[in-house]
Amino acid sequence: MGRRDHAALATIPLARPLRDAPGPAAPPGPGEERGLKAQLAVSFSDPSYWCLHLGFFTCGFHIAFLVTHLPGEVGLCGLAATVSAASLAIIGLSNIVGSLGAGWLSQKHSMKMILFWMYASRAVAVGIYLMLPKEPWTFYAFSVVLGLTWLATVPPTAGLVAKLFGVRYLATLFGFTLLSHQIGGFFGAWLGGLALAGTGSYDWMWYADIVLALIAAVANLPIREAPVRPAAQAA
């Protein structure tokens, strides 16, 4: 081993501190260079963010109405309470499949189109339900279809928020969309009770479900799936 070899070996200890040295910083994601206040201002001025709110409002409306009033609908149809219990259980099981499937699809396909088809399928499902005879199998099939889209809207909605504005404030920004979901849930449960008390049926609520689902489906089409760039970069 010559002198050059010894000299090369002698540099090994000197290289040790470099092993843990941080590499070049990755460029910040969309919104990650802003403060929370600035990010909220940017988000709430973006039409795409409001479209997500509208969709989630509709989702909450559907879910709360069905959870609260499906037993009443089954009773109005002259069926046993076990039908409503089984229907809610089917919705829960189908929700597992739908949510996992939506998360998987969101990695491979346009998330706004996934939301479009989910909301559109709800409108179709409610329309078909209204035309079918009110037998136990009708409620079970209806529960499977709705269960598949029940909370399957969450993965693509959260994914779009992260894609548009980054993940630094994802919890806060998605929290505001979830607030829209809960407001929709309030109206779904409350108006369902008013409809039943005023008309003796839930017909008007089903019609409202169809209209809201169609509006939510269309509202997802103009959503951008590209990050919002800072003003300095956009210029």
What's the short story on this structure?
The chain is 76% helix and 0% strand.
| Unreliable spans | 3-28, 231-235
Helix amount, in percent? over 70%
Strand percentage lies at under 5%
Proper CATH architecture: Up-down Bundle
- CATH 4th-level superfamily: MFS general substrate transporter like domains
Number of domains: 1
N-to-C series of helices and strands? HHHHHHHHHHH
Description of the molecule:
With 235 residues, the chain is mainly alpha-helical. The protein has a single domain, classed as MFS general substrate transporter like domains (Growth Hormone, Chain: A, Up-down Bundle). Helices cover 76% and strands 0% of the residues. The chain has 11 helices and no strands. The protein has helices spanning 3-10, 12-19, 36-44, 47-76, 81-106, 111-131, 136-148, 154-165, 170-199, 203-219, 231-234. Helix 6 (111-131) runs antiparallel to helix 8 and helix 6 runs antiparallel to helix 10. The chain is elongated. The N and C termini lie far apart (60 Å). Mean pLDDT is 86; it is low at 3-28 and 231-235.
Relevant terms:
mainly alpha, 235 residues, 0% strand, Growth Hormone, Chain: A, elongated
